[in-house]
Write a structure and sequence with these properties.
Blueprint: H1 8-17, H2 34-53, H3 55-58, H4 74-79, H5 97-103, H6 121-132, E1 152-155, E2 168-171, H7 199-211, H8 221-233, H9 239-244, H10 250-266, H11 268-282, H12 300-311, H13 316-329, H14 334-339, H15 356-376, H16 395-403, E3 408-414, H17 426-439, E4 442-444, H18 454-469, E5 476-482, E6 488-491, E7 499-503, H19 528-536, H20 544-557, H21 578-590, H22 595-603, H23 606-609, H24 617-623, E8 636-637, H25 640-651, H26 669-672, E9 677-678, E10 681-682, H27 692-695, H28 711-715, H29 735-741, H30 744-760, H31 764-776, H32 782-801, E11 812-818, E12 825-831, H33 848-861, H34 864-867, E13 868-869
Antiparallel strand pairs: 1-2, 3-5, 4-12, 6-7, 8-13, 9-10, 11-12
Helix pairs in contact: 2-6, 8-10, 11-12, 13-19, 20-21, 20-22, 25-30, 30-31, 30-33, 32-33
Length: about 850
């Protein structure tokens, strides 16, 4: 199937004019059952409140009920006490004695009677809401919730902030994530006769049969190899690889596809692609963030550890263990010391103005939530301040897990370089940094008040930056260590100023006792993280395998079987195919926690290999608007990194060097030279790496500042590194047009691409055909060939009339700042680190015909066929 080379900016216009059947994570209209909400209010709020505030006198001991007011049942509430009048008038709180009593408005009727036990304003409002919505009462048995239908289970937990936490009752479908995996078999009988018996297709087929939907045919060879290659490497297939991939008979289809998958999974680019997904989740960056965005000179070693782990197909359970507790597994293994850098990937700062106890608590909260969201699909902040309202997650569990990290401290640890860590640029990098340190100058251009030292201060901050930068080649790990112990308290409302009881280290109690009897959480400082890692990575943990197979599914189909990959539970989305999710999770564990095997399983399914086109698209938009059945493959735009890397691959400029300290690609110069304020000064300006070989490495190796983003990547939804990104946004907005059609990076790539095809030689038509072969792996149609030739001729005429003037790069930038002590505005000149800079070929350096051919290249680089994977 050939896809039209519609310019991307035209596609944007069409997007705004028409509905998009496969818009990411489209929210359906939700109909909320008011009765169910009222029962939820009673079960989660009113019943625990009555138990805590009233039952001691009105129900705990039936023989000693005061005032003959029995709160054990709705009948007792309606009967009232000694007065003989109902205590509640459903729908009318102001006429209900119970409500009047808890407000303390009537001096003769004030409950609870003691001042210290009075209900808060929030609790009084809950009582008012409960009565106003009908005073619904649920006498639920442990097994059935007959009033609303559906099975209900009773979840026992360790207890939380509220007194009545234990034995709360939940509908089974609401707590599916915390229950053991279902042991199910694929329904192969649902597959059409003669179809390959693939388990994934067997699970997907019944819904299509029910909806009377016929799935799309298999995608053509070109579409399929491009889809698979981008999914597993983040790069386009070469023209030679496309030409060699021919599924010309049913007999060789499966073997050819498996050969392709084996080759792609063995490529070192596979680990780079997978690391992109993982680093989104863990918030990787090379700097600390906040107002003191200093460099983390050894963070790059964690990035390379992740790449190596995926390339080696490290079993996922081992991958978990190393990142949570590598140093407790083997403190002598440098790889283990690097791995636990995971625990410090979030933004963090400690300054002279910071309170150490507060910043310590900020990290404890951060690491608790990071472990929960990454491995367990649980947003832990939802039960940090109070017991979770909808899931079986008491606040005590949150702080018990946090206590695991009470003995964990930050550390820069000696860690010799390991096999696979690239040290080839160390000497050159160190020499450059030393030269820059020795020649770095700031020239003051205005006088300050005699008592103002702001300009010395700026120089000192630059010195700190350079000192950190020079440590990149040191054999150190950005790591942690177990040292000492800190008691962790339950914090009332999550506030450090309101500590309650001390908690012992533990895990989430609602998940059940699935571990061996000899497993235990140490109470001493040593071994806590190792015990936590063993609990997370246990084969029977209900969450862990489900979460990772769902993340991998999302990588391939755009949306997970659970559309909220870091939020499993009532507040997240329910799985579209729960049996398939559980079967995949069990299969994954049984197959050695191998992510490469999981890719192969998914990508050999008919569902993955389907075309992105369907003959009954209007019907599909009605019966399956979110494409949950996967009757057609959902197309996607390339990610920001894929766009940049694919352009470099097309021009032949992409460097094959891997690993090592981050490099500095060219970014928009106006952004690069913006003053980047750090506490007490301004950081050195962003300057690109000197050689094209460094600048043109894969985007994952680019140095990542938290407070400075590449605008081209940012506009194409590359996430920031402050918060975990479970799934990237997929916006279509006007600034993307400017980035792709007017951006300097794309123009430079268009020039490089023109030079590449010119080097191959031949006529204009031959060069255009070469362009299509390189960019799209196919020949152009006659209409496309003629359109490109016509545009080339027009651009030749244009460039002959318009001379392009040379534009020099900046070498000095002028800065301004107001002195903190004097209030005087002062200026200085900052010399940029541009010595030895090798610039890309520029338009004024090439002939008119090359510039005209570059205009053709620019249009094709903006085409939907290049920008999208179908």
């Amino acid at each position: 199937m050939k896809h039209p080379t519609i310019p991307f900016f035209v596609l944007i216009a069409l997007t705004f004019m028409s509905s998009d059947l496969f818009a990411a994570d489209r929210e359906a209209v939700k109909v909320i059952d008011a009765n169910e909400q009222a029962q939820k209010l009673f079960v989660t709020q009113i019943k625990p409140l009555l138990a805590a505030k009233c039952m001691a006198c009105h129900g705990d001991d039936p023989a000693k009920i005061k005032g003959k007011f029995d709160l054990r049942s709705r009948d007792g509430v309606m009967k009232g006490g000694e007065s003989g009048e109902p205590s509640v008038v459903p729908g009318e709180p102001e006429k209900s004695p119970l409500y009047i009593a808890v407000t303390w408005k009537n001096e003769d009727l004030q409950m609870p009677p003691k001042e210290n036990d009075r209900l808060s304003k929030e609790q009084i409002e809950l009582v008012r809401q409960w009565i106003a919505t009908g005073a619904v009462w649920s006498d639920v048995s442990p097994n059935k919730w007959k009033t609303t239908g559906g099975e209900v289970i009773q979840v026992k937990t360790a207890g939380g902030m509220s007194a009545a936490w234990t034995n709360r009752e939940y509908k089974r479908e609401d707590v599916w994530a915390y229950l053991p995996r279902q042991q199910v078999e694929p329904p192969y009988d649902a597959l059409p006769k003669g179809a390959v018996k693939h388990p994934i297709d067997a699970f997907l087929q019944p819904r299509m049969i029910e909806a009377k939907v016929t799935p799309a045919d298999r995608a053509d060879d070109l579409t399929l190899i491009r889809r698979m290659t981008f999914d597993l490497t983040g790069l386009p297939p070469t023209a030679e690889e496309v030409a060699a991939f021919k599924l010309d008979s049913i007999r060789n289809q499966q073997s050819e596809i498996r050969n392709l998958l084996d080759r792609l999974l063995a490529s070192p680019h596979y680990g780079e692609r997978m690391a992109q997904h993982w680093l989104d989740v863990v918030r990787y960056a090379d700097t600390s963030g906040f107002s003191n965005d200093h460099e983390r000179p050894h963070a790059w070693r964690y990035r390379d550890y992740v790449i190596r782990s995926f390339n080696s197909d490290k079993p996922y359970d081992r991958f978990i263990m190393e990142q949570v507790a590598g140093d407790e597994i083997d403190a002598k293994d440098p790889e283990m010391l690097i791995a636990v850098g995971f625990l410090r990937m979030g933004p963090w700062e400690q300054t002279a103005m910071s309170v150490a106890a507060i910043t310590r608590q900020m990290w404890l909260d951060d690491v608790t939530n990071t472990v929960g969201t990454t491995f367990l699909g649980q947003n832990m902040t939802c039960f940090r301040c109070h017991d979770h309202k909808f899931d079986p997650l008491p606040a005590r569990d949150y702080y018990s897990m946090q206590a695991v990290f009470g003995s964990t401290q930050f550390a820069q640890r000696d860690a010799p370089f390991v096999q696979g860590e690239d040290q080839s640029r160390f000497a050159g990098l160190k020499a450059r940094m030393e030269k820059w340190r020795d020649t770095d100058t700031l020239t003051l251009r205005s006088k300050l008040a005699a008592n103002d030292n702001s300009f010395d201060r700026i120089g000192k901050k630059r010195g700190e930056h350079l000192k950190l930068a020079m440590q990149r080649t040191d054999a150190k790990a950005f790591s942690v260590e177990t040292k000492g112990n800190q008691n962790v308290h339950i914090l009332n409302g999550g506030a450090l100023e309101s500590p309650l009881n001390v908690v012992e280290p533990g895990v989430m109690s609602a998940l059940g006792d699935f571990l061996p009897k000899d497993w235990k959480m140490p109470l001493g400082p040593q071994g806590r993280r190792l015990a936590l890692a063993q609990w997370i990575a246990h084969k029977d943990n209900p969450l862990t395998a489900r979460v990772i197979v769902n993340r991998v599914w999302q990588m391939h189909f755009g949306t997970g079987l659970v559309a909220t990959p870091s939020q499993f539970g009532k507040m997240g989305r329910r799985p579209t195919h729960p049996e398939l999710l559980d079967w995949l999770a069990t299969w994954f564990v049984d197959n050695g926690w191998s992510i490469k095997k999981l890719h192969t399983l998914i990508m050999t399914s008919a569902a993955y290999q389907r075309s992105g086109s369907h003959g009954e698209i209007a019907k599909l938009s009605t019966v399956d608007p979110s494409n949950e059945m996967l009757a057609v493959f959902p197309p996607r735009r390339l990610t920001a990194e894929e766009l940049r890397d694919a352009m470099l691959a097309a021009t032949g400029e992409l460097s094959q060097e891997r690993g090592g300290p981050g490099v500095y690609p060219e970014i928009n110069w106006e952004v690069a030279l913006q003053p980047r304020h750090v506490m007490g000064g301004i950081a050195p300006s962003y300057t690109p790496s000197p050689t094209p070989a460094e600048r043109n490495r894969r985007t994952i190796y680019a140095f990542r500042h938290r407070t400075l983003s590449d605008p081209m990547l940012e506009v194409f939804n590359k996430p920031g590194s402050e918060m975990s990104c479970e799934r990237r946004d997929d916006t279509t907005v006007t600034p993307q047009v400017f980035a792709l059609f007017n951006g300097q990076f794309v123009h430079d790539r268009a020039t490089a691409l023109a030079l590449r095809v010119e080097k191959a030689g031949g006529s204009l038509n031959a060069m255009i055909e070469e362009l299509y072969r390189v960019l799209f792996g196919r020949k152009p149609s006659k209409e496309e060939l003629d359109a490109c030739a016509e545009h080339f001729s027009a651009m030749v005429a244009h460039h002959r009339l318009h001379e392009i003037k040379k534009r020099d790069l900046p070498t000095i930038v002028r800065r301004q700042m107001v002195g903190e002590q004097s209030g005087v505005l002062f200026e200085w000149d900052e010399k940029l680190d541009m010595d030895g800079y090798q610039r890309d070929r520029q338009p004024w350096e090439v002939p008119t015909t090359t510039r005209a051919l570059a205009e053709v290249c620019l249009v094709l680089l903006n085409s939907s066929e290049f920008v999208y994977v179908y």
